[in-house]
Amino acid sequence: MSERIRLTTAMRELLLEIWQNGSAYPLDRNHQRTFEALEVRDCIEHVTWGDGRSPRSARP
């Protein structure tokens, strides 16, 4: 059985924002920590690369 992932209120609100808008960006250090916590839990994935382009435009 898989372990239940517990999310804080900030994490749930951020996931809802991403779902509704299609994307979101960290606004400050606290918001950045929320993003990092969700990445560690495999709830979100960072999809831009070093040059800041989207994955589709970055492909040759």
What does this structure look like?
With 60 residues, the protein is mostly helical. It has one domain. The chain is 48% helix and 0% strand. The chain is globular and about 30 Å long.
Structural class: mainly alpha
The strand count comes to 0
Radius of gyration: 13 Å
Helix percent band: 40-55%
Biggest pleated-sheet summary: none
Strand content: under 5%
Overall pLDDT confidence = 77
Please count the helical segments: 3
Low-confidence residue ranges: none
What would you call the shape? globular
The overall number of domains is: 1
Which key phrases capture this entry?
mainly alpha; 0% strand; single chain; 60 residues; globular
Summarize the structure.
By secondary structure, this protein is mainly alpha-helical. The chain is built from three helices and no strands. It is 48% helix and 0% strand.
Sequence-ordered SSE layout with sheet pairings:
Layout: H1 9-21, H2 29-40, H3 55-58
